[in-house]
Design goal:
The complex is a heterodimer of chains A (295) and B (361). In chain A, 71% of the residues lie in helices and 5% in strands. Chain A has 13 helices and six strands. In chain A, the strands form three sheets. A two-stranded antiparallel sheet of chain A has the order 1-4. A two-stranded antiparallel sheet of chain A has the order 2-3. In chain A, strands 5-6 form a two-stranded antiparallel sheet. Chain A is globular, with a radius of gyration of 25 Å. The two termini of chain A are 40 Å apart. With 361 residues, chain B is an alpha+beta fold. The radius of gyration of chain B is 24 Å and the shape is elongated. The chains are: A mainly alpha (295), B alpha+beta (361). At the A-B interface, helix 8 and helix 9 of A face strand 6 and helix 4 of B.
Chain lengths: 295, 361
């Protein structure tokens, strides 16, 4: 076997390993989707059924209360399906995560720039303090937070959740953006400064566009974190502002565990993040346009 | 006339002093080269002039105006960076146009000026490309064009040729000098390359450890270096030094290797300036002659290394514990290990103080 063939074999082996890993990673998604589209009977059958008649009952049940079995006429009374809270909660999730992600990414980009470029008194200590906000498990600060939120009238409001998640993501965003800005050669701004731009103009015209890749990466991470956040949403909201994640847990309710229902809800929850990541992910790959600097 | 004047400039970074009490004038329409090894403080000096660093002390005056408190954009200087620093997202045209855009020139005016300067630098065919798609030499031309296009008061060039290949570097050296001459612009040029400095400069300022060591014309710096550092740093290879001691009317080189008679003027200089009898004898590699036979005023040595460099060769001769490098023509042949005789050209010998390393003669 010559060097060329050996390399080919090596590439094949790598592909096989990657496909195997992909299967492992995708399996939970598959399981979720299959449980969501199976009947209760199919979902619990052992060994698991690999072929089944897909049905959308579970998805409908997520959106409507009293749908499913109780549809039609019961004892002469027309039973109309009532919309469930899920749609509203999904809407809450979308508003809260996207707004707080946008805020955290933008603020993180600005402060990341300052931490990277300017001489800030006590810079390292400040950065540590920012990071330390993520060191405690959320449960530790939960009770004082709930009391504070109640006192301030932020309890069970979207605004309250947005503040919470923005702060929550900011620590991560600042650190991440700082290291991204560190990688942008300082000469870009300096060239702009001597060309006649003010620092502000130089930042927005030349540096901000270079930060795009970092901002996209930061945004994706914060969105996923916010979207999946459970504890604060559960503790800081009641009926109105609750997001979708804790609501799914809620369906571990009175009538036993309805796995099909949970799977359908979870599957719907995963979709927006996947779409968002696919839309923005291209930026990460096309990303770096550095190279106008000769090292 | 002085275009730019630097008075007592001091800049520290933490505990490290990058530039210390530097005073220097840059003449209008001339090339002033700041020459020194890496870390000598050249870049810091240039950055202080541009306003990218705030000096701890000293004043910077451009055309009679103290600019210490001016932000970079109001100083009307151009800076060419060692790594070119083009804007990656913009085309070559936009890169060159950027200083004009911020000054609010009309579109036609910008287009005309950019085209003019681009053809002057032979980069007009690249205007639509982005910087990543052009070569290093072309990138540096674009960076220079961006500086030229608005005709600033002073050009600050920070090792503009260091990142280029040797061949293009030489080409650009000539090109830069032509540009500067035709536009009669004022260049303040930092480089660690003594050949670049000698070939381009009207005035050379040698800087070492943040201190200005010597200011002078290229010939002055080359032939009358103030100390051993300058003598060694300028010239390729640098000056040869052999320890020696002054003994009455002669200087004992080696000591104990050979003796050279001292002229009355040299003796006077030694008596006035030398701190002790211990001195260094300095001689440039081109001022040493090699013979194969013993001769009056020639001393034996062994050929140790021969480096052929095309039209000339560098021959290293060993004298007991010391060696000297000699520039010799290419056609002479020196077998390694051979015993030869070397002599020093009259009037070319320099003497340096043994302690302060300052030049005595």
């Amino acid at each position: 076997m010559n060097e060329f063939q050996r390399r080919q074999v090596k590439n094949r082996i790598i592909v096989v390993i990657l496909v195997g890993m992909l299967c492992v990673y995708l399996f939970p998604i598959y399981w979720m989707f299959s449980t969501a589209t199976k009947t209760k009977l199919d979902a619990f059958s052992l060994p698991p059924k690999w072929v089944w008649r897909p049905q959308i009952e579970n998805f409908r049940n997520v959106f409507y209360v009293g749908a499913g079995g109780a549809l039609g006429r019961v004892k002469g009374i027309e039973v109309k399906p009532k919309p469930s809270a899920f749609l509203r909660q999904l809407g809450n999730s979308i508003i809260v995560s996207f707004v707080s992600t946008l805020l955290a990414t933008f603020l993180g980009a600005l402060s990341g720039y300052v931490f990277s470029r300017m001489r800030v008194r006590g810079k390292d200590d400040l950065l540590f303090v920012i990071l330390s906000s993520r060191m405690l498990p959320p449960v530790v600060i939960a009770i004082p937070l709930v009391m504070m939120y109640r006192a301030l009238g932020l309890f069970d409001t979207l605004f309250g959740l947005i503040i919470m998640y923005t702060v929550f993501n900011l620590a991560f965003a600042v650190w991440m953006m700082r290291s991204f800005v560190d990688d942008i050669p300082i000469e870009y701004e300096e060239a702009a400064l001597v060309d006649g731009y003010s620092r502000f103009q130089a930042f927005f015209k030349f540096i901000f566009p270079e930060m795009r890749v970092g901002m996209v990466a930061t945004a994706i991470f914060s969105l996923i974190m916010t979207w999946n956040e459970f504890t604060f949403s559960l503790l800081l909201t009641g009926e109105r502002a609750r997001t979708a994640v804790p609501s799914i847990a809620h369906s571990l309710g009175t009538a036993g565990v309805n796995w099909g229902h949970i799977a359908a809800g979870s599957f719907l929850m995963v979709l927006p993040v996947v779409v968002f990541t696919f839309l923005l992910g291209g930026n990460l790959i096309r990303g770096f346009t550095f190279g106008a600097i000769k090292e | 006339m002085l275009k730019l004047s630097i008075q007592d400039l001091t800049k520290k970074f933490g505990r490290k002093t990058a530039v210390s009490n530097l005073s220097l004038g840059v003449e209008s329409g001339k090339i002033t080269v700041l020459l020194g090894p890496t870390g000598a403080g050249k870049t810091t000096t240039l950055r202080c002039v541009a306003g990218l660093e705030k000096p701890d002390q000293g004043t910077i005056t451009i055309e009679g105006q103290v600019v210490n408190d001016y932000p970079p954009k109001d100083r009307d200087v151009a800076f060419v960076f060692q790594n070119f620093s083009l804007y990656p997202r913009y085309t070559v045209f936009e890169n060159i146009a950027s200083p004009l855009r911020i000054r609010g020139l009309r579109q036609e005016e910008i287009a005309q000026k950019v085209k003019e300067v681009a053809s002057f630098l032979h980069i007009d065919h690249l205007l639509d490309r982005r910087p990543i798609f052009i070569s290093g030499g072309e990138m540096q031309r674009v960076a220079i064009a961006r500086a030229l296009v608005r005709r600033p008061k002073v050009f600050l060039l920070d090792e503009p040729l260091t990142n280029l290949d040797a061949k293009i570097r030489e080409e650009m050296r000539t090109e830069l000098k032509r540009l500067q001459g035709e536009m009669e612009s004022t260049f303040f040029y930092a480089t660690p390359d003594q050949a670049e400095a000698l070939s381009m400069a009207d005035t050379i300022a040698v800087i070492h450890h943040g201190h200005l060591v010597q200011v002078g014309t290229p010939t002055g710096i080359y032939h009358q270096p103030v100390n051993m550092f300058v003598a060694d740093f300028v010239g390729s290879p640098g000056m040869n030094f052999i320890p020696a001691s002054v003994e009455g009317e002669t200087v004992n080189v080696g000591p104990g290797y050979f003796s050279l008679p001292l002229s009355p003027e040299m003796r006077k200089a030694c008596a006035e300036q030398a701190t002790s009898k211990e001195v260094f004898l300095g001689i440039r590699p081109e001022d040493v002659l090699i013979r194969f036979e013993a001769q009056e005023g020639f001393y034996p040595a062994l050929v140790e290394v021969v480096e052929p460099l095309g039209v000339l060769q560098i021959v290293r001769l060993r004298l007991n514990h010391h060696f000297i490098r000699v520039r010799s023509e290419e056609n002479a042949h020196f077998p390694v290990g051979e015993k030869v005789f070397f002599g020093l050209k009259e009037g070319k010998v320099r003497l340096f103080d043994g302690k302060s390393e300052k030049r005595i003669w």
